[in-house]
Amino acid sequence: MADKYDPESLTEMLPFYYKRIFPYGPYLRWLFYGNLDNFRKREFSFTLNGDIYARYISYNSPNELKKDLIKRCPQKIDLGAIYDICPKDHLQHSVFTPKMKELVFDIDMTDYDDVRNCCSGADICEKCWRYMSIACKILDTALREDFDFQLLLWVFSGRRGIHCWVCDEAALALDGRGRSCLAEYMSVLTANPVKKVFLTGDVLHPHLKRAKLIIEDQFEKLLEEQELLSTKERQTKVLGLVSNGDIRAEIEKEWTRIGPGQDVEKWDRLVAIIKHHQAKNSDRKLKYAIEEILLELAYPRLDIHVSKGVNHLLKSPFCVHPKTGKICVPFHE
């Protein structure tokens, strides 16, 4: 078993990491985008030992960055936008404007605390990652099929989430309005504390229809791993997502006939009862009842403010998360 990570040891390990392990070649090729000027005008920010925070750092050459990382050993690296001037010179200019930046998405496990039952807060386990797997699949597919983005870099956040960096030229050039529109397109859940998903319209949007299919593909495993219907409290929460009181009562009655630990069977009965009533009932609130529950329980929970801002900073790939000692490594969807 690996030794438990001690945050106090980070300052001892970082010099070795930046000298021997940090993948400068791939990292710099990514940041260049074929143009040294893009690199020179990119903002870096560092969190240094002693909780010292430094912004608007930039470099004239890759070698200058490498030397500075080895010298300063930042405990965290954040990346910002590519500006119209070198960020380190911004105080010498009256205008300092972000020109390009990857479109980014941030998904954090703590935003699932109202639906995950295995852990909460900063705690995570293998079961938690089912939510991240579903989120990654939904987002990756939508970005590729709906917007024709192809250069997607998925990165483990180092602690309890994942980041997506969309690196296509069209994504880099998006202004704040374009990023906001795209972020809102991807955002489905509202802030309503009781029910977060409300679907309307005669036809379900193709993005949501596809998301539903992706969720369904893993939903039985999610039901079992998270025991979403294993207690009275959890059953009441799911039943609360069904708008019709008579149908809620019917489902609840059926569930009492099913033994404990049979979450998949309970879900199948819920679906069957709702579909039965949908076939003979024109109540519009019932039209997307199953889709609303699935999306409520498993649709990606995005921090859309991270996606909207052109100058928003995000933890860099390959940096170390200071609280876990884990590397923000890229992964395949």
Automatic annotation (TrEMBL):
Biological processes annotated in GO: DNA replication, synthesis of primer
One GO cellular component, as annotated: alpha DNA polymerase:primase complex
Root EC class: transferase
GO MF term set: DNA-directed RNA polymerase activity; metal ion binding
Entry's EC annotation: 2.7.7.-
Keyword annotations of the record: DNA replication, DNA-directed RNA polymerase, Metal-binding, Nucleotidyltransferase, Primosome, Transcription, Transferase, Zinc
One Pfam family of this chain: DNA_primase_S
InterPro entries named in the record: DNA_primase_S, DNA_primase_ssu_euk/arc
Similarity field: Belongs to the eukaryotic-type primase small subunit family.
PANTHER family found in the cross-reference section: DNA PRIMASE SMALL SUBUNIT
NCBIfam families xref list: primase_sml (TIGR00335)
Protein name: DNA primase
Record lineage: Eukaryota, Metazoa, Ecdysozoa, Arthropoda, Hexapoda
Name of encoding gene: LOC103509247
